[in-house]
Amino acid sequence: MKIAVDAMGGDYAPGVVVEGVANALYEYPEIDIVLVGHSGKIAYYLEKYGIASHPRLSVVHAPTVVEMSESSATSIRGKKDSSITVGAKLLKSKEADAFVTPGHTGATLAATKIIVRTLPGVNRPALAASMPAFSGRFLLIDAGANIDVTPMNLAEFAIMGSVYSEFLYGVENPTVGILSVGGEDSKGSDLTKEAFKLLEKAPVNFVGNVEGNTVFEGACKVLVTDGFTGNVFLKTSEGLANSVKYWLNVIFRKNIVRMIMGLLNKKAFRELKTNGSSELQGGAPLLGLNGVCIVGHGSSSPLAVLNAIRLAGECIKFGVNDKIVEKISRFHKLLEEESESEKSNTEQDV
Amino acid sequence: MKIAVDAMGGDYAPGVVVEGVANALYEYPEIDIVLVGHSGKIAYYLEKYGIASHPRLSVVHAPTVVEMSESSATSIRGKKDSSITVGAKLLKSKEADAFVTPGHTGATLAATKIIVRTLPGVNRPALAASMPAFSGRFLLIDAGANIDVTPMNLAEFAIMGSVYSEFLYGVENPTVGILSVGGEDSKGSDLTKEAFKLLEKAPVNFVGNVEGNTVFEGACKVLVTDGFTGNVFLKTSEGLANSVKYWLNVIFRKNIVRMIMGLLNKKAFRELKTNGSSELQGGAPLLGLNGVCIVGHGSSSPLAVLNAIRLAGECIKFGVNDKIVEKISRFHKLLEEESESEKSNTEQDV
What we know:
Shape of chain A: globular
CATH architecture of the largest domain in chain A: 3-Layer(aba) Sandwich
CATH superfamily of the largest domain in chain A: Isopropylmalate Dehydrogenase
Order of helices and strands of chain A: EHEHEHHEHEEHEHEEHHHEEHH
Number of strands of chain A: 11
Oligomer: homodimer
């Protein structure tokens, strides 16, 4: 199993990436790694972490880097030899079974959509983010890849998310809900109402509309939404979590007794942090691409890089993409049959 | 100043509403109150709280109640003599200067839209919710009244929100942002991109796109969005806040030492709760209606009812609606002039 890793991705590249790769080579003997990036800039870190001549590591040179501040479109047009584009090409040519980047989500999406393309039957790849709930986690799809979508896109996201969360959380037939306003079937926008009808026919365990508050109480395992709303959902959760952290700090510092208690409670907060941590998740896959692609957080640590590599390996082993293709084709076939039977019914009526 | 109050609204009606009204009559000698609801069911509480023959209180009988579980549309069609509909009619006929209901947001919106109608120049009323940030608060508009909207609707929401938050927070020329994905001007959906262009011309302090995380850090005082995204934003914040509360409880209960610390910290948590409390806000106005209408939380306490009445009184005193009409008409005039000058330019070119 060969996994390409973008050495230049993220805020602390290439140092943390190479350190994460070194750990992954040690932890996962079944995984070969292709580091993609500026070979000159990587060399120092390969020496530092003792993997300069590791038998399961190779380096593919990519002279340019997409900076985190660059726009996706211009970076892809302007930097055809960036580590992201070169990584995507390795995935396309099957020289790598998966591509991991702790970097620029937008640029990765743009490059892989053009170079790697989508799985048969899938119109749009979507970003699937695992988020913490009261107990356990749930999958948010799409977390921000597609701003304007159709009801059919949402139905496909639901199927992809269902397959992936079955693997990720080890649950059979995970519950799937549409993020909407009000839990009743009739509530929602034109988009969610049409998607609702499609999802009633889709091969998933559809539980209907789900609201932004009940999802944290476990209303569903897969939360389906467009990339605009999904991104707002993700960022709001992030912002509010930071807000609460800030308030707690302020409150605990108000007097000396509380300050001491605050210090004593540090361990408790560390646990809270772990529960909500993205480090252990490693990253979010772009589901629906014709290849496994994991996007890590821009501020990934070596541990996050290691976990992103592990996740990529597991996606390959579990055959996530084959299962997606199978379910999506079953769904499209069902819709076709239905529309044909309607047609023949109409003809008979005539 | 006469304020109509829906005695039957909310989960604990009419008891808590009458208690809140009794306190308001005592606290605000300049406010007269018209209680709207089932006179038989109210009578007991009027006696209990000693306001049965209060000189500044009158009761208007409304035989039916819109239950919190009912759908907005059917409740309005089916119950033409509900406390919400009767309250809206009092507002329309100017027998009341404001209408306060701690009840059903959807039904209130539906009834007031039909009966009270909108202010001149305003196409849609919007729900404006005040939310807690790191320091201070910000205004979310629309928090859920309009699911599918146009860019012009968003521009009008921005103007209304700007006027209202100037009054509510006592800040001059408050910053206004569009809730979007990515802070750059070019980011967003078709809807937000078009609204962005309109807001650059609007008489507000427009700061561009704002993300769901930075808004909690004070990125803007007025956060403009459609009612679908706004409702998701609101519910997600609510859900996550509950989630954090739950985690903290679990963590603090893990061992006895921590349990004691948890108990000692109760006061700290109470402060946190106050910071995020909706009780002190009283409720959210439906801005853009041709009359002042405040919707309280369904689980309103007497204190929340009191504060909703206070808020209604202040909206009248500050002349929120007159200021909205003035700013909206200035905005529409500006757009007209612009389109005329473009036309004449084109004619000159010819």
